[in-house]
Design goal:
The longest helix has 21 residues. Strands 1-2-3-4-7 form a 5-stranded antiparallel sheet, covered by helices on one side. Strands 10-13-11-12-17 form a 5-stranded mixed sheet. It has 2 domains: about 130 residues, Immunoglobulin-like (Sandwich), CATH 2.60.40; about 170 residues, OmpA-like domain (60s Ribosomal Protein L30, Chain: A, 2-Layer Sandwich), CATH 3.30.1330.60. About 15% of the residues have low confidence. It is α+β, with helices and mostly antiparallel strands. It contains 7 helices and 18 strands.
Length: about 300
Amino acid sequence: MDLSYWKYQGGKFECQLIHAEVPQGKFYFRALPGEKLSFESEWNGNNTGLNVATLYQVAPPWLPDARERKLEDVNITANSIVRFQHQIPELLKAMAASQWVNVAYSGSAPSATKSITLPTIRVQQSLTAFNRCRANLPGMSVEEARTLELPFAFGQRSLTFAQQNKLQALSSYLAVDASISRILIDGHTDNIGSSVVNLNTSRQRAENVASALQMLGVADTRIDIRAHGERYPIADNVTQKGQAKNRRVTVRLVRDSERVVPVLLPAQQIEEKQAPSINNQNTTQNTTQSGTKTAPKVFSEASPETTKVQS
């Protein structure tokens, strides 16, 4: 028990609450962006014959009613890491109230078991730092933020509550990743109605997404908007299911070290060469108290601007 203590380790994209190294292995809590929280067990040695890992909350032995509370069973695989993901916030709260942690591995044979109990005698300071780190993690991971797709209902232009929540999570990621230099917002529609109406609808949707990000603190100078209308479908427009997939706005992040190049289908290359560039025609100016700044760039569907990001 004298060797038992917990230490905090964390950064902008991950937080860990780690128990002191013991001969049995490594045991720690792990928090990731998007409110992902787990307790992970890396037991040393051979786990042959063991197929189930169980996480318990246990009372310290000096309490009169030292019962254990089973939290989760997880199947043991060839991977040495066992990850528990259920009732972890409750376990952390219990640890703050002096409850301990127990991990047990078991097999089909009664003798095939091993268990370790992790006291929480010196956990408070590290637990406080871990929870503070958790609270400051982005609302989504880099994989989720890199390309975000927002589906739209037929005729929808304004953002739903769920879409606003996704953009808020994205803005929390942008706030901690300084390497993102550009945010590309592409609006798309299905093929119902005229191409002119669809182009305007796709632009309005993309502009609404851009406005929401700006209200969340994202600088407009980082944002590029492009309207495509019914072009570049990702599904067949013959069915309602396909049309629903095509009604979308995609948000893509570009890092400083990456460049954006146009990628066109063979049938679209001729149209793109014939269409005039209007990059400069749609650039507007917004005046603020501190001076004049450039608003997000808006491109038509015919612009030779970005569709692919290269490292």
